[in-house]
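Posting for a labmate who doesn't have an account.
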Amino acid sequence: MELSELEKIRLKKVFELRAGGIEPYPTRANRTHTSQEAIAAFEAAEKQADPAPVEVTLAGRLRAIRPMGKVVFAHIEDGAGRIQLFFRVNELGEDQLRHFTEYFDLGDFIEAFGVMFRTRTGEVTLHVHRFRMLAKAISPLPAAKDEVVDGQIIRHATLSDPELRYRQRYADLAVNPEVREIFRKRAAIVRALREFLDERGFLEVETPILQPIYGGAAARPFITYHNQLKQQLYLRISFELYLKRLLVGGYERVYEIGRDFRNEGVSFKHNPEFTQLEFYMAYADYLKVMSLTEEMLAYVCDRVLGTRQVTFNGHVIDFNPPWRRISLREALIEAVGIDIAQHPTTESLAEAMRQKGLAVKPNAPRGKLIEGMLGDFVEPNLIQPTFIYDYPRDISPLAKNKPDDPNTVERFEGYVGGMELCNAFTELNDPLEQEKRFLEMGRTYEAEDEDRHPMDEDYLRAMAYGMPPNGGFGMGVDRLVMLLTDRRSIREVILFPHLREREDD
């Protein structure tokens, strides 16, 4: 790679250290305490009548350096936090102090041995007796700058440019501790979801990512090719059809948390690679799954945040059950004044939409017109947790009909913060009806339409062995993390989001 002038200066230091017999990337580190462990050990010793010196060896990245003549103050950061280092010529000698100021830069990893003490300002600090380089940072952390504070020069680093942060997440994490906290919370959210389901008898499983037939959702897949088997394969867009095969096999409650891949547009709430939770529960319907969803998300809030009231995009959102429940029909009557029950055909509904001044997508089936109105006029206003239920049959090929309405299925979507969070069905378990639905989807949608659902003969064969009645659920984990960390872009909660190629100037 091409080096900047500053990087060339730092690289020169690497060569000079090696020429002097010092390895800037040693094989071993000898840390005895994290920053917080060292502080805790010192504070415990302070409470004793005759405390013994607290000797520790710390290691971390240099985040601030303040030379002050015969002494230097510095701060290092490790995985537990920050701590101050104090270097003084009396203990180190002039050569060692000069070695530190000449060869150590912000971003370098340092190991320091010494005795803990408290400064006159009250900060718990390591009085350094020995130190050495653990890793030389050739590239300075982004946006490094000097700042004068109380007459002293403090060197530090920040990074705020979103494009650079996403492209160089490693640098973003290195200089923005609040970003590191997002991903700690993300891990805690996933852990809490697992705990909730495990405690209720669900079995966590893994299903194929490479699939010969994609299904379980309305999305365009990524396509790949297996050279040895000479097969075209798809990256999965859903876990659904494999998880429901397991219900046939005798498991009554299964779930998976993993990656799905959808070859679709990118937005603040869409990424082509995302994390999904799906579970399937024998002898349940969509009403039981609604209640379980409320309970699960309240549990996650309790475990991760200690509160069920969350601030997102300026709104205080209350995850306490019960959520508001409203049928899709009622929601559209409220939002646009159209009663879809009075318009059972595509033509009738399209005409009603035109009379209201709404755009009508050419050749769209009735269900897609309804879905479009939901997305445009209902979803953005659903800030507090809300279940919208009972959906058109023609956009829900895997859901069971309502007993009294052949055009409507038992399906709900959960909305929070103005976006869809989850989707669930009373699952269709009649293999003959399922085959009919697959054939209908093939006829209704054009070959390139993402809602066209391919025929899966093996799934139908599994259903033919007998599938128990069940309720199924899917939720985007990334969107849940957005809600619980108050982030408006999905890129903020994915460590390495996919970005467009950047053209060099």
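Reply:
Got it, the structure tokens are right above this. The first helix runs from residue 5 to 19.
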